[in-house]
Amino acid sequence: MPEGAVPELDRIHKRFNQMAGVLCSTRDRERTLSSHLVDVQEAERRGLARELHDDLAPLLFTASVYLTTIQNHLQSRRYGDIPESLVAIEHTVAELQGRIRAMLRRLRPQGLDELGLDQALRDLVKTWRSRQSQTDWTIEMSGLRDDLDDTLRVTIYRIVQECLTNVARHAGARQASVRVAVVPAGEAIVDTPRLAVCRPRMVEIQVKDNGKGMGPEVAFGLGLTGIEERVQALGGALTLTKRHPQGLCVRAWIPF
Length: 256
Hints:
Elements: H1 10-75, H2 82-107, H3 112-115, H4 117-131, E1 136-142, H5 150-171, E2 175-184, H6 193-198, E3 201-209, H7 222-233, E4 237-242, E5 248-255
Parallel strand pairs: 1-2
Antiparallel strand pairs: 2-3, 3-5, 4-5
C-alpha cells in the first residue's frame, strides 16, 4: 500500500507493508527449503542406489559364484573342496549383513524402537564419549514421555545426532552438553510468539559446546540446513548462537 497518501492511516500502511514483506520473504524461504529438501532426498537416494550397486550386488554375486562352485564339486564328487567354499560363503554373508546394518542405521536411528528415545540419546552421547575422551560429553533430559509421536522422536534424535557429529568433527571442544526437555510453550522462546499460542507444550533441544565456534560469515552447511528443515516441518523454531571463538549453541523448539 502506498505510504503517506492519507496521513491518518500512515502507521497502518507501514505495518501492513511490513507484514506483506515478511510473508513474501517467508514464502521465498519456504520455496528454497523445499527445493533443498528435494535435493537432499535425491542425493540420499543416489547414495543408497550406489551402495546397493557397488557394495551389495558384488557380494551377492560372490556368494552365487561359491554356490555354483559347490554344485560343481558335488557333480565331480570332489567333496573335500566343499568346506572351503562354505567358509567363503559364510564370510561373504557376514560382510553383507554388516553392510545392510550400516544402511539401516542411516535410514533409522539404531536402538530408538528397542530402547526408547531417552536411552537412545544417552547411548549416542556415550558413543561419542568413548570415541573422543578428550571432550567432556554430558546429557540432561527432563519430562520426555514414551508416547511421543514417532516423527517427533526421530526428529529429536537426528537433531542431537547431527549436532554432536558437528562438535566432534569441527569444534575441537573440551566440553559439549545436550539438553532435551519438555517445557510450556509460553516459556520456550520469547522472540517467536506464534509458537506459544499453537500448542500448550514444546520439546526444547539444546546442544552447546565451548569449541572454536562459527564466524558470523559462515553459512549453514547441509547438516544444519537439514535440522532447520526438520524443525520447521513440525512447526518449530531454530536458533543458532555463534559465539566465535568461544563455541556454538544450537537450540530448537518443537510443539506437540
